[in-house]
């Protein structure tokens, strides 16, 4: 008797340094014993220190990739990262609304790289498109803290727990998405608190995951890996709350094992996905 592989579809850009984007998604899904198919939205030339160039794929090619994946069967969950262009964002929106509407969807709204560099054309328009057309169709959105401020047009504060809750609530209320995660890795505290806000039929429920920070410089691709862990959890049948805890716990452990090595010339190496087993 054969069994169907649990799978996710990741729709994102390619990172030539292999620390973020599609490459991070493949490694992260594999850690969860989840098979990842891919639809590449853009090709980037980047190192661990900077983005040199980012070129969106042709919209027709993006559609062909999605059709090819669908022909083999529907994924159990979808992770969306870098969209690359307004045209590609519109294609993704159409598939979410008309094809993938009953599948869990995790959106990591990649607008710029942490190491520096523009990853989208027409930043304001694509930010609006995320909020108005992609988020309302999503199960969970996972912006990094800079993106959360940008999406809500808020001024950056100290990133307290109350501020994280307020940002997550505003993202939900402004966009109509079902739940939002605001991570606390950029806070000034010795502890990182991730906040999940869920809109359950108009009732806002908050879940927090707090962990002690590791002093680690190898964090390239953390956000991509986090959202893929969350999507993998949903693909495996976890609730949103349990998938959130799974993603936060797994990312924290992965950061812990990423200290003490060097890759690249900037001191900002990729997460170490190797020799790690999820318990």
Structure description:
The protein is α/β, with parallel strands linked by helices and 279 residues long. It is built from 8 helices and 9 strands. It has helices spanning 21-31, 59-71, 86-98, 123-134, 145-152, 161-175, 222-235, 240-256; strands at 7-15, 35-46, 51-56, 77-80, 105-107, 140-141, 179-182, 191-200, 203-212. The strands form 2 sheets. Strands 3-2-1-4-5-6 form a 6-stranded mixed β-sheet. A hairpin with a 2-residue loop joins strand 8 and strand 9. The two termini are 27 Å apart. The mean pLDDT is 88.
* Coarse morphology: globular
Termini separation comes to 27 Å
- How many E-type strands? 9
Number of helices: 8
Return Rg in Å. 17 Å
Strand content range: 15-25%
Query: What's the helical proportion of residues?
Result: 25-40%
- Major sheet: arrangement of strands: 3-2-1-4-5-6
Give the biggest sheet. Answer: 6 strands, mixed
Notable features of this structure?
single chain; 279 residues; alpha/beta; 8 helices; 9 strands
Map the helices and strands.
Blueprint: E1 7-15, H1 21-31, E2 35-46, E3 51-56, H2 59-71, E4 77-80, H3 86-98, E5 105-107, H4 123-134, E6 140-141, H5 145-152, H6 161-175, E7 179-182, E8 191-200, E9 203-212, H7 222-235, H8 240-256
Parallel strand pairs: 1-2, 1-4, 4-5, 5-6
Antiparallel strand pairs: 2-3, 7-8, 8-9
